[in-house]
Amino acid sequence: MSTGPEMSTETSTELTGLTAAQVAAAVAAGEVSAVEVTAAHLNRIAAVDPQVHAFLHVAADQALAAARAVDDRRAAGEPLGPLAGVPLALKDVFTTTDMPTTAGSAILGGWRPPYDATVTARLRRAGVVLLGKTNMDEFAMGSSTENSAFGPSHNPWDLARVPGGSSGGSAAAVTAYEAPLAMGTDTGGSIRQPAAVCGIVGVKPTYGGSSRYGLIAFASSLDTPGPLARNVLDAALLHEAISGHDPCDSTSVDAPVPPVVAAARQADVAGLRVGVVTQFGGDGYQAGVLARFGEAVELLESLGAKVVEVSCPHFTYALPAYYLIAPSEASSNLARFDAMRYGLRVGDDGSASADEVMSLTRAAGFGPEVKRRIILGTYALSSGYYEAYYGKAQQVRTLICRDFDAAFEQVDVLVSPTTPTTAFAIGERADDPMAMYLADLCTIPSDLAGNAALSVPCGLAPEDGLPVGLQVMAPALGDDRLYRVAAAVEAALEQRWGGPLLAQAKGLAAPPGRREATGMGEAGGIGR
Amino acid sequence: MPITRDEVAHLARLSRLALSEAELDHFAGQLDVILTAVARVQEVAADGIPPMTHAVPVVNVFRDDVLVPALPQEIVLSQAPAAEQGRFRVPRILTED
Predict the structure, then answer these.
(1) Domains and CATH numbers, chain B
(2) Which of A312, A375, A389, A403 to probe the B interface (max B CBs under 10 A)?
(3) Residues in chain A with pLDDT values less than 70
(4) Is residue A409 assigned to a domain?
């Protein structure tokens, strides 16, 4: 792999430890070039990605060219945006004209999209350096990346465990210092759940706050692009860069972008009313997750928040409603993969009919989870079952929204654990769909309601030493509240811990400077 | 038992999925478990509750009808499984009778 100019491994390693805000400031001040920063991250990818498998495609040449363009603009005295020169890992569900886009599916193997997603285009315009495309559960259906047609990604804290999903490659890349920022998409928890189990920050913006144009559709009434980062401010900077009205997406909200960066800098919860959702806890929740969550709630109280318990009775039915609504929409969306205009074609031997070619192609190109969901969705939409399943799920969705509305009359934000357990072992739930679905138990209500939610690290579970996430939920277009709370929690916990959560990490999640001590990091990588 | 193996086979045909016998066996059991779990929505008292299809109540999104260049033909066809004479080439769509 081409890695650009010569530099010492020590400098290169330090650059991968910087936050996005630090990178942008250093590039703008001319302390380091965007090319040097990009090369350092490409080195890190070359060294660790054979083990992590966060990336499906690394675009080294394009990344260095994009970085060089930022350096040229700076040299010419042009103003640079707040993320210019910052490397980013893009989930392979966003279309990119200069890189393959597969959505983790064999049916799109090698496909070159004819246009950029709005998110892709906005990142390019902001001078963000796209390092490549990250692994994901096929068509974003899953909570572990094990449903990727190209093999699972590994959790940098413990390579035998999942990084969560579906945006697991993006979460793993950020956690292993392969990129300071990543983009994911959240349909039932696909940003927040991987962020939680990797010990980083992940945000699902308000539905319609970030554009779906050029996003390969899973469930169109739920899909929401959002940021992943190692700290709250970086997530806010990325959130702001991708947000805002897009005329190419008919569900895009034409409203001012919530002031998320200012909120992340404010980091103050004094007087804020925080509701603890009583439905999330008890059976099926890991003791260490509940312990850390309880401490986070106490911390919020000690920081001046007013904490009350809030009951949202229909949240209990969010998971079943979601597994009717999302597969129904998916069965319709995935009908476009018909082997005629793009993607895989199987069985076209001159005698087979179009109908037979479609069936053979879809059977060969889709993985088991996608097939299950297409069948489930087709069933739920069938006449005779429609009212009892899809129709009922849509009514439950209304009731979940009403629970949120009632809750937000009493409190400013709601909190819960992000996931019931820490990262599970690769293979543990692979052939048990219901067990896998439970990973999204706490994240689904915000997707169904279309409001904003975030996960921020709140410690390690004592029983396994793995990260636990605190979920914060806010009303639609109240995304800034998430950042106020998360930044306050992050600041207080970092003071308690003496540094970020990842500073306590083992393995490939250990930051630069601590890697030698763990015997991992770049040792043996081709970056040397 | 909410779903039988025969129903799964029928749904697979409707969904244009040529599933193997082994896949049908496997999926029938799993889908039965999933459907039993999601059928819990039927416990909810929802009489008179309107269905919700979308999170954001955006209606009648219009834009000016302005001509913009379409994607060039060669770019569109470059990703086709098969193309001929500037068109997508598809398998036969009519049956013999």
Answers:
(1) 5-43 (1.10.20)
(2) A375
(3) 1-13, 515-528
(4) no
Q: Give this complex's ipTM.
A: 0.95
Give chain B positions within 8 Å (CB) of A207.
55-56
Assigned domain for A485 exists: yes
Strand partners, A454: A203, A472
Which residue is listed with tokens 């914060």? A472
Task: Write down the pTM of the prediction.
Answer: 0.95
pLDDT in tens, A183-212: 999 999 999 999 999 999 999 999 999 999
Which residue from A376, A378, A397 is facing B52, i.e. has the nearest CB? Answer: A397
Please report the pLDDT score of residue A431 as a whole number. Answer: 85
DSSP string over A270-324 = TT-EEEEETTS-STTS-HHHHHHHHHHHHHHHHTT-EEEEE--GGGGGHHHHHHH
In chain A, the number of structural domains is 1
* Cα angle for residues A223, A225, A228 (degrees, 5° grid): 130
Question: Domain range spanning residue A213?
Answer: 12-269+455-518
CATH assignment at residue A110: 3.90.1300.10
pLDDT at position A195 is 98
Q: CA nearest B64 in A: which residue?
A: A247
For residues A296 and A493, what is the distance between their CA atoms, to the nearest angstrom? 9
Active-site residue (options: A166, A328, A331, A455):
A166
Assess if residue A379 is contained within a domain: no
Nearest chain B Cα distance for residue A503, angstroms: 38
**Residue A247 resides in a domain:** yes
- Report the residue from A340, A363, A392 with minimal CB separation from B46: A392
Average pLDDT of chain A, as a whole number: 94
CA–CA gap between residue A411 and residue A385 (Å, rounded):
38
Task: Decide: helix, strand or coil at residue A8.
Answer: coil
Best mutation target, B38, B88, B93, to test chain A (most A CBs within 10 A): B38
Q: Kindly state whether B91 is in contact with chain A, defined as any CB-CB distance less than 8 angstroms.
A: yes
Gyration radius from chain B CA atoms:
23
